Amino acid sequence: MCYVAxxxxxxxxxxxxxxxxxIIGTGCAGLTAAIYTARASLNPxxxxxxxxxxxxTTTSEVENFPGFPxxxxxxxxxxxxxxxxxxxxxxxxxxxxxxxxFTSMPRKLVLGDRTILxxxxxxxTGASPRMTGIPGEKELFGGKGVTTCATCDGAFYRKxxxxxxxxxxxxxxxxxxxxxxxxxxxLVHRRDSLRASKIMSDRATTHEKIELxxxxxxxxxxxxxxxxxxxxxxxxxxxxxxxxxxxKGIFVAIGHIPNSQAFTPAxxxxxxxxxxxxxxxxxxTNVPGVYVAGDCSDHVYRQAITxxxxxxxAAIEAERWLAEHGG
Length: 327
Ligand code: NAP
Prior knowledge:
CATH topology of the largest domain: FAD/NAD(P)-binding domain
Mean pLDDT: 92
CATH class of the largest domain: Alpha Beta
CATH architecture of the largest domain: 3-Layer(bba) Sandwich
Order of helices and strands: HEHEEEHEEEEEEHEHEHEEEEEEEH
Distance between the termini: 24 Å
Number of strands: 19
Shape: elongated
Radius of gyration: 22 Å
Strand content: 25-35%
Bound molecules: NADP nicotinamide-adenine-dinucleotide phosphate
CATH superfamily of the largest domain: FAD/NAD(P)-binding domain
Largest sheet: 7 strands, mixed
């Protein structure tokens, strides 16, 4: 579906404020888009969702963002970007977009009981942690022992045994971080080799405090009756044998789900819910003047630096679109 862009002069006459550019999301992608559009004097409005700063704020040390030879704290990195965006005039507002109307100009963003009008929109809503869905996980999520963030909650598990579920870079990173506090970390993975990069795999598989539980899927989080995690039942997918890991904390690190729901069906998504870009572009959507950036549309690279790069591309596209359409 492709909507024809109407003449911007049509909505200049409307009484409501029409924003030049509204950026949704404050992760690396959204904040980079804010820096670029603010420096282009577009006076961007950034809508901040339920996880300000995005996924980087739940990472400990970021070692691969160029310009930081000794690494940088993830939270600090996003704070720096925010400060940089603010310096050039970016406005921030806490708001959750619940639905959109992109069928006419200006574009409409619905935030519960009010609507924001925008000439261009950059969607940088990121992705949320995927959960296993096993019994007990939901009941004991949060302060009761099941979590998705070692950086946030790891310190609560000093001298205790914990489990990390997953085999990617996130799981390896969480497991390694948890070794600072926990007496033992079980890394539960459904196959017999990690998906994580070699450097992270090597670190995790050779760490004395980490026990790899290969070929194992989680079956049940135990402790619901007591109100806190008392164990994780896992099953070996090859032998069928079950065992209970005597853990007090469970860190789920099995990937993410893109936050695209509020924008469908207006914006095309793939079978996994990731926004689809138009051929020849990483950031243009099926709606003119509406762009996507970062983990909500990128399921291939998913790095802080690639999200920042997409935020930059989306900002330049928005700037050009406004110039061409009399913004
Ligand atoms: P990921 O690479 O998609 O890995 C998800 C892991 O969870 C996989 O090992 C997968 O198993 C497992 N899994 C998925 N669904 C499962 C289920 N229902 N039950 C049990 N296990 C399940 O996700 P990620 O680790 O969050 O990483 C996402 C991206 O961010 C990657 O590109 C990664 O390189 C990047 N990242 C980088 C860093 C870093 O460089 N410092 C840190 C974190 C993340 P299978 O392997 O069998 O599919």
